[in-house]
Amino acid sequence: EVQLVESGGGLVQPGGSLRLSCAASGFTFSRHGMSWYRQVPGKERELCAYISQFGTSTNYDDSVKGRFTISRDNAKNTVYLEMNNLKPEDTAVYYCRTYGLPQTYWGQGTQVTVTS
Which of 12, 10, 24 lies closest to 116, judged by CA? Predict the structure, then answer.
C-alpha cells in the first residue's frame, strides 16, 4: 500500500523558514519523481515544486522560485521542501504527490501558516 506522510508544517512569522518532509512507503521511491503542491480553501491545488527520481532535475512555480528548495533522500524514501523567506501568501496546506505510478497518490497534507 502506497503511503505518503507529510510533516514539518506549523505557524511561522513572515520572513521565517520551515522544512517540510514527506515520508513515502509502499513503492520503489527512487524510480519516481515527486512534487509538492499547496492548496488554500476555495482554490485549486497548485504545484510548488517538482523533483526527478534521482534529484537531477527540479522545477519551481514562479511564486516560490528562489525561496523554496525541493530535495530528496532516496535512502530514506523522503522528499523535502525547504521554505525560506516565507510570506503570508504561502499560507496553505502542503501536499506531496507521486508521479509515474498507475494512479496518483497524495499525502494527508501539512498546514503552513505565515502570520505576524
Answer: 12
